[in-house]
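Sample intake sheet
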Amino acid sequence: MNKLLIELFEEIKNIKYEIPLKFTLNNSACSWKIILLKNNLNKLWIKSNYRICSFYWKDLNLPKEILNIPHDDFSSHVFLEIQLEGKMIILDPTWDSWLKNIFHINNWDGNNDTQIAVKVVDLFSIDDSEEIMNNINKVDFDQHIIKNHDFYNALNSYLHDVRFNNLNL
């Protein structure tokens, strides 16, 4: 079973991370990757909980020219806690392997926690995390994207360039 779980984690991890610039249920930001992982784990009868934390973009290893683009520096991130063999395990497949030169890339052994992809400022309760994830809506999303569009667009372009450069090394 653990081999299957590791393969599932790797498959979702290696979907290229990108923040969507329009509302869609099929994207590759942390929230969509986590929804996909949770849905697949549910099919395998593995209990999991959404966990949301807050973080600052400035705490990530990003170029100053991107961080200087006006945006909400304080943001949120989602990962999973799964129940496996009687213990709770943190799973975070956010960063894809092609971003290894700028972020810690999680590899999961099937038994232990992975690192959370961001530096946690505040961790929301399981109930609050579940409520937020179950109430994502287009209006709030669109308002957030409008305010942060230029930053997210530059971030996505930067991540694309990092991947391209890694492929050509």
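Comment: The first helix runs from residue 2 to 13. Residues 2-167 form one domain.
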